[in-house]
Amino acid sequence: MVFLSVINWARCRGPDEFWRKRRIFRLAAHYIGRRRNCYSIAVRNVHRALVYATKARKLKKEDMKSLWDVRITAACEQHNITLFSLREGLDRANIMLDRKSLSDLASWEPKTFEALAAVAKYKLETDRFIDGQDKCHPTGINLNLKDVMLEAWLNEKKK
């Protein structure tokens, strides 16, 4: 491009404007009507959508945490232990599992979760820990570590 005067050079925004608008139009490609074709309308809608997407990322994390806690709590009630006691017992037994992995074990591998609950309960009993956090006692089956652990499994394998 050859500019004969400084005024024409200043008025030309160059290729940067094309690519800036193209980026907005690509983000608005799935919209309908003028929201897709008119730049001034598209840029408003794209910015609003990006704000919603930013907020949704935080909300998704919170939703997943609450879902994992619900799954773990339900599995704990089956094994007669509270969520607080389970977490405390696993921490004292140096078993470092996060919410997601505990939730996966609770839903997909219930025998493994039962063993973890028994280990946590045994560790709390040996440490003489009293759960003062939860006043109500869960209704479930009492676990003994000896019932859950490997002896029965090993005896089955030998046969």
Automatic annotation (TrEMBL):
Signal sequence span is none
GO molecular function terms noted in the UniProt entry: rRNA binding; structural constituent of ribosome
Report the Pfam families cross-referenced here: Ribosomal_L20 (PF00453)
SUPFAM superfamilies, per the entry: Ribosomal protein L20
User: In Gene Ontology terms, what is a biological process of this protein?
Assistant: translation
* Family statement drawn from the similarity comment of this UniProt entry: Belongs to the bacterial ribosomal protein bL20 family.
Can you name this protein? Answer: Large ribosomal subunit protein bL20m
Q: Which PANTHER family match?
A: 39S RIBOSOMAL PROTEIN L20
Q: Which NCBIfam families match?
A: rplT_bact (TIGR01032)
GO cellular component, as recorded: ribonucleoprotein complex; ribosome
Keywords annotated in UniProt:
Ribonucleoprotein, Ribosomal protein
